[in-house]
UniProtKB/TrEMBL annotation:
Gene3D superfamilies in the cross-refs: 1.20.1530.20
UniProt source species: Haloprofundus marisrubri
Localization in the cell: Membrane
Main location: membrane
Protein name: Cation/H+ exchanger transmembrane domain-containing protein
Keywords: Ion transport, Membrane, Transmembrane, Transmembrane helix, Transport
GO biological process: proton transmembrane transport
Pfam family, one: Na_H_Exchanger
Domain of life: Archaea
């Protein structure tokens, strides 16, 4: 018989959730007061509560609040990942599938160039990193492929939150940005599975990657045909019954979690399944009140918990070493410039004007918590040193903050920029 959780474990978890949510909401409010989306403050929550600040000034409090036990950490991590699942579900519900179909070519082009350029730069960086940042200075190929993959990805959760907060999710530029981020995320996790196999076994497992991609394609086709029609019929039936709003919310949440479980089983991220579930269901299939409940819970509770938890592993004290700090700046420049040039160039070729192309380059620069997950995998398989892990995590946070701060300004038309700033402050 499995023993229940100890009372102390649950107490610690509840205190953690209370502190993270409170600080995330406070910092999010402060961010809005200075004209930036709330996600900027929420991303800084983990840094404030982690070893970089709280662990430095009050190590006893930090140790009591976040005890170094796997059970406690994984409980918090599991709850925080519910946040990103619901955020991506909400984002998918807002996407116009007809517009996505019309712009599929543009999204594919932007995604291709947005991956290729930073991938090439990241691959080259591995050969110029100083030896103390590398696990094996004589074998840099696996590290180069890993860094190339890490530099290539974009964070759908952060991008989605920024687009929703700034009202860009309904615009063509926002729709293509989300579609491109989805394609980039899919390609990134496929590349990561190949790179991890190469790092561990010395060869690429092409067969496994191909099967994963075929399974994902089959599920996507099902979700947008039979799954869409079946879910729509169930939502209509539930909506006419007593407690229809609660039933609709529960049904859509179950669909998102089930879709996330399937994409995770295929070797991709659960977030991808949640996004596909939202797109497949569609905004019009839900009652207005059901959509409002989902949005309020996702953006008001779950998303701040997720973003607040994502930065808890960051240790800025490692940057006291000037060489580590210099390497961090170099990697940040490579990641930022590579993604900006790749995405903006692809958007220009696809026919977007310079303002929208620049907005895409800025928005898709956000690496967010997904890059932190990638870095954690690299650390776990022995491919990254602690210092290089910290650098990659900082790149993830810095690019997300820059994207959140700059995208509302870059994407707004010149005559709308002051209005956009005032609207964000009131959000």
């Amino acid at each position: 018989m499995i023993a229940p959780l100890e009372g102390a474990v649950l107490l610690t978890l509840f205190v953690q959730l209370f502190v993270i949510l409170s600080v995330a909401l406070l910092l999010g409010r402060l961010a809005r007061m200075v004209g930036m989306p709330a996600v900027v403050g929420e991303l800084l929550t983990g840094v404030v509560l982690g070893p970089s600040l709280l662990g430095l000034v009050a190590p006893g409090v930090f140790g009591a609040l976040f005890p170094a036990t796997p059970e406690q950490f994984h409980l918090l991590e599991a709850i925080s990942w519910l946040g990103v699942v619901f955020l991506l579900l909400t984002t998918g519900l807002e996407m116009d599938i007809d517009r996505l179909r019309r712009r599929a070519g543009s999204a594919a082009l932007v995604s291709t160039t947005g991956v290729a350029v930073p991938f090439a730069l990241g691959l080259g960086v591995a050969w110029v990193l100083p030896g103390f940042l590398v696990v094996d200075a004589d074998d840099r190929l696996a590290l180069g492929l890993f860094l190339a993959t890490a530099m290539s990805i974009s964070a759908i959760p952060v991008i989605a939150r920024i687009l929703v907060e700034t009202g860009l999710a309904a615009r063509p530029v926002g729709q293509v940005m989300l579609a491109s981020a989805t394609l980039t995320d899919t390609a990134g996790w496929l590349l990561l599975s190949l790179v991890v196999g190469f790092a561990q076994f010395g060869q690429f497992d092409v067969d496994a990657a191909g099967l994963s991609l075929l399974a994902l394609a089959a599920f996507t086709a099902f979700a947008f045909t039979l799954g869409r029609r079946g879910t729509t019929a169930l939502l209509r039936r539930v909506g006419t019954a007593d407690g229809g709003v609660r039933g609709q919310v529960a049904l859509v949440a179950a669909f998102a979690l089930g879709s996330g479980a399937l994409t995770a089983a295929f070797g991709f991220e659960a977030t991808l399944g949640a996004l596909l579930a939202g797109v497949a269901v569609g905004r019009d299939a839900l009652d207005v009140e059901a959509r409002r409940v989902l949005e309020d819970v996702s953006l008001g509770v779950f998303a701040p918990l997720f973003f607040g938890t994502a930065g808890l592993r960051v240790d800025l004290t490692l940057l006291a070493n000037p060489a580590v700090a210099l390497a961090g700046v170099a990697l940040l420049l490579v990641a930022t410039v590579g993604k900006l040039v790749g995405v903006s160039g692809g958007a220009l070729v696809a026919g977007f004007d310079r303002r929208d192309a620049l907005a895409m380059g800025v928005g898709l620069n956000a690496r967010g918590a997904l890059e932190i997950v990638v870095a954690s995998i690299g650390l776990a398989i022995g491919l990254l040193t602690p210092a290089l892990y910290t650098i990659i995590v900082l790149v993830a946070i810095a690019t997300s903050i820059l994207a959140a701060a700059l995208l509302p300004v870059v994407a707004a038309k010149p005559e709308q920029r002051r209005v956009t700033g005032r609207r964000i402050r009131r959000t």
